[in-house]
Design brief:
alpha+beta, five-stranded mixed sheet, 17 strands, globular
């Protein structure tokens, strides 16, 4: 890398972390735990609300102005995935098309990249695994402006998940080729599962569960029924998990184990880990190979004592002798900080378009400046030569007229180059005055889908924008065998509808979910309960003209 970074800034789902870098290693760290609402509010604008926090963290570890920075982040629109394609001449082109389809973003107008990870032979067919990443240009532009306001010189914008995937793949490919190895990077927001056998990359999966799920479950257990978990509770929950540890059933000496009371709260997340890893083994290996597979864990979750042992015990596989994760005694929660330093951050950078144009413009300007200096040197040399010749032979002035014309032509060329430089500067200024942020509806409808039950059907979803935000009006029905109340009863009488609204109210993007009118009815001879509900979204007002709401 031509420019070695001086600092890494990581904006994740729960914290803002910074690290001072010396010779490719982080030598000092600082972090601030953030409320979920604070991070959502920051992303919904231009991240300027986090300016004071970032400045304070940079000062605490003595980061000078102008320091070269790598920005690691997990944004609301960042799409990171691995596509497996049959070998052909257009693997990368096919992956790029799949990226656009999966993200609903145009790779031609938004920062994106496709990176070949490896391949394997399956039934005589060569399959290639390609890491694909894309984000909205305005998101990465906001990150750049945020870093510049803090006095930094950002050189790369790396999605945390992309760095985790490439790091896990590289570690898996370096494992013993004679033994099936499954490398699990337990990230904070997502988990990367990589399966390698006989030196071939068999499977790469990204699962939407991370160590934050364990921390939040622990915070819920200790928050005495609080509706939202704040930054202080999250930090305390992490420290509680670090001190108590997560122990497999076979390792518990008695029922008095202090960590036992947490199990009912964290067990759903643990089971999700186990199910996803077991499915990877089942689909990627035969039964005999799966039985002798070795599990290797890394990432933020690996710093929680006993988590890797618990996963290995439940999966009935051997646990590899993994190197200890980088744990700072003052901030063990920052284990994933600087993942991009283990790979090439420039190859994973989602650089905003304005910055790319500025870089190209600077290269052009430097090229023109070098040409101009060369031209001036030539002019100066020619002038000296002409003057000496005139001094010696005043009568030969007329013979130098063609040379003077050539020098005049060169001067005109230099003026044209200067005009092009001015035009480039104006173009760059216009690009920086782009459109602002627009909200995205995908997460809202994802929460509606997750909360809906099999015997429930939403018949109408409408939205209305107002000064306080967006309100969704829901209408639906539920089979009477799942609903216990009749027309006129209280809203809490319906177990299914209450559970649906309770699940919605706990979502990060939902401010409140209130039950409206309910009545009994029949649909095609089947008794049902018809209900209405009002759901108010959290954050700034959204408008249906947004791209995310189409």
């Amino acid at each position: 890398m031509r420019s070695q970074p001086n600092v890494v800034v990581s904006l994740g789902p729960a914290r803002l972390d910074v690290g001072r870098v010396h010779r490719g290693r982080i030598v000092a760290r600082a972090s601030a735990w953030l409320d979920r609402a604070t991070i959502e509010q920051a992303w919904s604008t231009d991240i300027s609300s986090l300016d004071p926090t970032l400045n304070q963290l940079l000062r605490s570890i003595d980061i000078p102005a102008g320091a070269r920075a790598i920005i690691e982040y997990s944004g609301p629109d960042t799409s990171v995935d691995v596509f497996t394609l049959n070998e052909s001449d257009d693997v990368m082109l096919a992956a790029r098309k799949m990226l656009g389809d999966a993200s609903d973003l145009d790779p031609a107008s938004n920062p994106s990249f496709e990176l070949f990870l490896g391949q394997c032979q399956e039934a005589g067919i060569t399959q290639s695994h390609v890491l694909c990443t894309i984000d909205r240009d305005e998101r990465s532009h906001a990150l750049r402006e945020w870093a510049v306001r803090a006095g930094l010189n950002p050189i790369a914008y790396v999605p945390i998940d992309a760095a985790a995937i490439q790091t896990a793949v590289r570690r898996a490919l370096e494992a013993d080729a004679s033994t099936p190895t499954v490398v699990v990077h337990l990230g904070e927001q997502r988990t990367v599962i990589v399966l390698v056998h006989s030196g071939q990359l068999r499977m790469v999966r990204c699962v939407n569960i991370g160590a934050t799920a364990l921390v939040d479950a622990t915070a819920d257990a200790t928050a005495a029924g609080a509706h939202n978990v704040d930054a202080t509770q999250r930090k305390a929950a992490f420290e509680l998990l670090r001190s108590n540890g997560i122990h497999p059933q076979s390792a518990r000496a008695s029922r008095e184990d202090p960590a036992d009371w947490l199990l009912p709260y964290i067990n759903p997340a643990l089971q999700r880990y186990i199910v996803e890893i077991r499915q990877t083994l089942r689909f990627g290996l035969g039964p005999q190979d799966a039985a002798r597979a070795v599990l290797a864990c890394s990432g933020a979750g690996a710093v929680l004592p006993g988590l890797a042992d618990t996963l290995a015990a439940q999966l009935e596989v051997a646990l590899a002798d993994s190197p200890d994760p980088v744990i700072d005694s003052q901030s063990p929660h920052t284990a994933d900080l600087g993942l991009s330093l283990q790979v090439d951050p420039l190859s994973l950078s989602l650089t905003p378009r304005a910055h790319r144009l500025a870089q190209a413009s600077r290269r052009a300007v430097w090229g023109m400046a070098a040409g101009a200096l060369t031209a001036l040197a030539v002019v100066a040399g020619d002038a000296v030569y002409v003057w000496s010749q005139l001094s010696l032979q005043r009568g030969g002035i007329s013979s130098q007229s063609p040379r003077l014309d050539e020098l005049t032509r060169r001067l005109d060329s230099w003026k044209q180059a200067a005009e092009l430089r001015r035009q480039n500067t104006e173009m760059y200024r216009a690009i920086r005055q782009g459109l602002g942020e627009q909200p995205d509806w995908k997460l809202v409808f994802s929460e509606l889908s997750r909360a809906s039950q099999d015997d429930m059907k939403l018949t109408d979803v409408s939205a209305e924008a107002g000064p306080a935000g967006i309100t969704l009006s829901l209408r639906g029905l539920v089979a009477s065998d799942s609903a216990s109340h009749t027309a006129g009863s209280t809203p809490s009488a319906s177990t299914a509808v209450s559970r649906f609204l309770s699940t919605l109210a706990g979502a990060s993007v939902i401010e409140s979910a209130d039950l409206g009118e309910t009545r009994a009815a029949e649909v095609r001879g089947v008794p049902v309960e018809v209900f209405a509900a009002d759901v108010r979204l959290r954050g700034l007002p959204f408008y249906l003209s947004n791209t995310g709401g189409q």
